[in-house]
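JOB MANIFEST
job_type = single_chain_structure
chain_count = 1
residues = 287
[input]
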Amino acid sequence: MKSLPNMISRRGILQSAGLASAGALLNTTPGWAAGKGGTPRALALIGDRYHNSDYIRLSLNKIFGELNIPIDYTIDTSADLGTLLKNYQLFLVLRDGMLWPGGYAGPDAYVGYQTMLENKDDFPAAKSVTWMTEAQGQAIKDFVNAGGGFYPMHNSSHISLGCKNYRDVMGGAYIGHPPLRPFQCHPTANAHPITAGIQPFMVNDEQHYVEYDKDPKNLILESVNIDGLTYEEGGKKLGAKSHAGWAYDYGKGRVVFTAVGHTVHAMWNPQYIEIQKRSVRWLLKQI
């Protein structure tokens, strides 16, 4: 437990850096202060109903800690990204595009939590709304066009369904996923520094199926259920394979998307740790 003066001091630092709400801030690694001597600094917008911010922060702390890159975390979806991102060189998003202003009965999607209540009929049905505005999406585009690195991960592709500007820079959009189950992830035939020498690896994760809008030459990862299990969404058969990652230049900056990310176990697969590290370094033009 941190002392109150220390917490206040750290909040003050981040507020002065442009973060709108200290109450929306989470812990950071390896430090809260901006990088010194030209050291890049990252900001991560994380956490939603189905993806708690604790496991995300834990997972990413390992990646950025080993890279010795300071990272700040926020859960503030109302942030003025145009102002906020001026303080960073890399922006990472791991959360979906939904907010639930009317509340929901359970902490997540487990039906049992919502149906086993004595007064379940007294609680309104959960209804989501989109949160990212076109102005926020444009701020991300401007950030990347000016030379910033953008790393949308896992379910952040869902944001594209409600924001055209975000989709334009992110590069695709969420379709759906089957239940948590094992699948393989492997590099595509497109050569890239992020995937050079990476071996196929297995994860027990959500296999996200996504649409991809850009040049196919920039696809760097593919997922496949090697047991032959397929997925269907909206009556459309999508097969056993899906795009699982891409990387491309955008203006003066760069974009990387990787789809794995629902559990710490998957995030810390050794091959995927290496992919995440290389993605960060490529986005910062270190490789």
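[summary]
Confidence is low (pLDDT under 50) at residues 1-24, 28-35.
The longest helix spans residues 53-67.
exit_status = 0
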